[in-house]
Amino acid sequence: MLERTLNTLGRNDVSSVVLAVNFMADRLKKHFGTRHGKMRIRYSRELRPLGTGGPIKLAQRLLESGDTFLAMNGDILFEEDLSKMLERHKKERSIATIALHMVADASRFGLVRVDDAMRISSFVEKPKKQEPIKGLINAGIYLMSPAIFDYIPSGRKVSVEREVFPILAKEGKLLGYELKGYWTDIGKVDDYLEANFSILKTEFPDEPMVEKGAKVSDRAILIPPCLVMKKAMVGDGAVIGPFTVVGEGSMVEEDARIERSILFNDVHIGKFSMVLSSIMGDGTSVSRDVKLDEGTVLGAGVTVGPSLKLEGGVKVCPHKDVTEDVLGPVNICS
To answer: Would you say 292 and 284 are in contact if contact means Cβ atoms under 8 Å apart?
Structure first.
């Protein structure tokens, strides 16, 4: 995800990036280093979580100039030219401009209300869901002028959405800009799956993609869009796809079926098993004749015994053994 975001920023002529890191900070530093393409990367580490505003304040010392800068959430994917957003931000001399996105149901995000000039007037936090509410939501992408730092206190957890933006809106210094291109948030399992499916459909719409080093039986059936990564193995009669990723080093045995699912690395799926609309973490192992139904999520290292059925939104924490049928929704962590 982060690589895709950085690629999008590169296409927007971003030359320098500060990554605000906490969880998995060392792994991120090892993976990305100090450059991505032509972009310079630096790191601002939170010793404790500081919300959405604290990391921006902490990164102030690393910003290279006193000019407008871009801040954004790490759990979104988007593909759009932001030059018009920047142009409008500077023209209106706004302290902050929020990218907004139209969704069919804003109940899980919260509505943003704007006037005719796209000045943000108020926020409606996650309206009660009686029926789907179409509207503009905060897309988690912000253009900010240096004056924003006067509104963010130091040394504590700060929410820009609840503590900073309402003040700017009241002062008439908060602008909205509608993003009309591709955008998605992956805060939930369904969102994560749909983001993968969208990318598969875009990049491999007509032919299955089998990476070099993967071994796929001539008697297997691959239905696009799907991706079989290197070192993976797919046995006789197995059906892969549509909308499926088989991760690096994973094995799908004979006559198993995987559909609308994501298998991470080194996953093992036994003979005659069926996996539908599910996510398998690294090193998970599913025995033969198992059925994993829609909404199943197995954490890393989970094992599922033979001839079992998991359905209705079962989520299993890492390194657990499942030895009986489970009807969800339920989280198995003990």
So the answer is: no
Give the 3-state secondary structure of residue 320.
coil
DSSP character for 229? -
Distance between CA atoms of 229 and 249, rounded to whole angstroms? 8
Calpha distance 182→203 (Å, rounded): 14
Residue 328 has pLDDT above 70, yes or no: yes
Question: 170 to each of 90, 121, 152, 243, 283, how far by Cα in Å?
Answer: 20, 7, 16, 46, 51
pLDDT the model gives residue 23: 86
Instruction: Round to whole Å and give the CA distance between 4 and 73.
Output: 13
Whether this prediction's pTM lies above 0.90 is answered by: no
Which has the closest alpha carbon to 35: 3, 80, 82, 78?
A: 3
| Helix, strand, coil percentages, rounded to 5, for the chain | 20, 35, 45
pLDDT given for residue 125 in this prediction: 76
Tell me: the pLDDT tens digits for 35-82? 999 999 999 999 888 999 999 999 999 986 778 999 999 889 998 899
Give the helix ranges, DSSP H, for the chain. 2-11, 25-32, 54-58, 83-92, 165-170, 189-203
Residue-wise DSSP of 235-298: -TT-EE-SSEEE-TT-EE-TT-EEES-EE-TT-EE-TT-EEES-EE-TT-EE-TT-EE-TT-EE
Instruction: Give the pLDDT band (50/70/90) at residue 130.
Output: low
CA distance 186 to 189: 7
Beta partners for residue 72, in sequence order: 141
What are the backbone angles phi and psi of residue 269, rounded to the nearest 5°?
-115, 120
- pLDDT mean over 155-167: 94
Closest listed residue to residue 332, CA positions, set 307, 318, 315, 309: 315
Q: Which domains does the chain have, with CATH numbers?
A: 50-185 (3.90.550.10), 204-332 (2.160.10.10)
**So what's the pLDDT on residue 129?**
62
